[in-house]
Specification:
Number of helices: 6
Strand order of the largest sheet: 9-12-10-11
CATH topology of the largest domain: 60s Ribosomal Protein L30, Chain: A
Distance between the termini: 111 Å
Number of domains: 3
Shape: elongated
């Protein structure tokens, strides 16, 4: 009789224990379904807590999910996302200080952005002046003096530089393969200096520099006079 009573009590206890499921604490969850049943908490289960969102798709249009909360979508993350004349500050597009800029689009049609300020746009070189390669001058064998043709070419370059001044002009001197490398560097330098001095005499201002490459960067590699003539030259690099 006692054994029967004991077994009955055990069965009853097991059934009672199985019927009593542990309750979910307020704000806690195992799935989003647990959050749906709770008031005052978010409806998305994130790492065991009911939150407002886990991804942007959990928020309504115009909002994004940050730290499990839906917040207004920022206007910008960089200046490029703002209209011209505005910059991105604290994820909002605000008006720039007058005259300041991040790029040319922040300036007027006749202005360009220089060092963060809007300045008058430099005049554009004409098609005749845009190709610096058109002003290459050539020299006789072992010579650094300018020919009449070279002087005429430099006159055209000087006219272009006066019409549309450059930030920097570099005269690059070259020589053909005959002679030692050291001698050819010196010869290329004399040629570059001759061209620079002539431009100066023609009234070209600004920063004009010279550099010599000697026999390097040859335009032609044949051992013929016509080939050597192409390599005895001064080229110009014009930066605007």
């Amino acid at each position: 009789m006692r054994r029967v009573l004991f077994l009955s009590l055990c069965v009853t206890g097991v059934l009672a224990f199985g019927a009593c499921k542990p309750k979910v604490k307020p704000g806690e969850c195992k799935s989003s379904a647990d959050c749906e049943k709770q008031e005052g908490y978010g409806k998305v289960c994130v790492e065991g807590r009911c939150q407002e969102c886990a991804a942007d798709t959990d928020c309504k249009d115009g909002f994004v999910c940050r730290d499990s909360r839906c917040e207004p979508k920022p206007q910008c993350t960089s200046d490029e996302q703002c209209p011209p004349g505005q910059s991105c500050q604290n994820e909002q597009c605000v008006a720039r200080e007058a005259g300041t800029c991040a790029s040319d689009r922040d300036c007027g049609p006749d202005e360009q952005c220089q060092d963060g300020r809007c300045a008058a746009r430099a005049p554009q070189a004409s098609s005749e002046c845009a190709d610096a390669g058109a002003f290459t001058v050539r020299f006789g064998f072992d010579q650094a003096n300018l020919t009449a043709d070279s002087q005429g070419t430099l006159q055209k370059l000087a006219d272009c530089l006066k019409a549309t001044p450059a930030k920097r002009v570099v005269a690059q001197g070259y020589a053909d393969e005959r002679g030692t490398a050291q001698y050819n560097v010196a010869l290329g330098n004399r040629r570059a200096e001759s061209a620079r001095k002539y431009l100066e005499d023609l009234g070209v201002g600004g920063k004009t520099e010279t550099v010599s490459f000697g026999e390097e960067n040859a335009l032609c590699s044949e051992a013929t006079e016509s080939c050597w003539e192409q390599n005895r030259r001064v080229e110009f690099q014009v930066e605007r």
